[in-house]
Amino acid sequence: MKKALIILVLLVANIAAFSTNYYVRKDGNSTNAGTSNTASGAWSDIGTSISKIAPGDTLFIADGTWVCGSLNYTTLKNGTNTNRYVIKAINKWGAKIQSTGGNDALNFMSCKGITVDGLEIFYPAGVKQGKSILVLDDGDWITVRNCKAYGAPLGGIGGNSDHYILENNVIYDCCWQDWNVVQNTSGINLYGTTEKSAGTIPGTTYGVIIRNNIIYHCWGEPYGGHGPTDGNGIIIDDWNKTQGEGTPQYKKGVLIENNLIYNCGGSGVSVYDSDNAMIRNNTFYYNQWKKDQYADGKACGDIDVTCETGKGNNNKIYNNISIKNPSLSSVGIRLIGETNWVAEYNVVSSSNSKLSATNIMTSNVNFVNSSIDPIVADFH
Q1: What pLDDT does residue 4 have?
Q2: DSSP alpha helices (H): ranges in 53-173?
Q3: DSSP-based helix, strand, coil % in the chain, nearest 5
Q4: Alpha-helical segments (H) within 18-146
Q5: CA distances (Å), origin 258, targets 105, 203, 210, 312, 341
Q6: Nearest-CA neighbor of 208 among 234, 185, 183?
Q7: Are the beta carbons of 255 and 210 closer than 8 angstroms?
Q8: Would you say 41 and 22 are in contact if contact means Cβ atoms under 8 Å apart?
Q9: Which pLDDT value is given to residue 180?
Q10: Among candidates 105, 271, 258, which has minimal Cα distance to 193?
Q11: Amino acid 323: pLDDT
């Protein structure tokens, strides 16, 4: 037993020895070692600094506004769930990445084992192209937490990563430049998710988790003579691969919980042609205002599960609050084409579905201060 314990201690020590903290700051230098948070020790460029770290390393980004073009990475492929590349603001939202537009602000393409923590990423006024503020596309074991993302013309956080966790983020003022039908996006936009490795997120039965996020004022614009299709707070889009995204279908499911979504132009949460979504304990308030302006968008729901026959199964809706603007014609919960669905214990102001008696139909919810103004809104 003692011998086994000694070997275990040596193994842990050996892993730790290969994990390094690096630092990047405005007054650093690219020729420095990068290993201390000082002007003489830190690196000076975010783009090259991220490309230098190895699994297990943490890159700490100092306060300041970092003006960048598109930060695209394709080589960070060797991380795992327990041995990650970590990119972290020293102070939450102190490290501000300002995108100059033209493409995604921060894009990890087919990467594996990455955590992004505490960054503020934004597009300034006047930038008219940039698909997303954070895009993590076709990866595995990706986590984005504690970030603020705003101003992106074409969306907030997106991608199709397996083992994907999005938590404690604030996303707003996005999706206002729908210049192409293919680019319709939402605050969180997960399209055609693909299984990259076996198993679910440890401790859960899900492959994707979206929790504790605040999303507001993401709306979408019309194109091609009709209203916007998206501008949702969150969309789970075609995980059953009905639109030519390849195979296999993604069956691990998604947990969407404890999110606050208000004043978005589309649905609070939209699930299209996807299975095994658990939508619980979320609050939705006064969404769908943009879609409601167009005849082809008025029927959408604040919680909107719309599936072609046989292409949506086992989606569950529990314990949500959905309060619609009474001046709009859209509804609180809409379920179309779904099989084996459950919607119970929700508080909704309207619905077009035959909900069970466990749901409460009312608009009299005692929020502290319900408002679409983020400065005064308090949804406790």
Answers
A1: 54
A2: none
A3: 10, 35, 55
A4: 46-52
A5: 27, 18, 9, 23, 20
A6: 234
A7: yes
A8: no
A9: 55
A10: 271
A11: 94
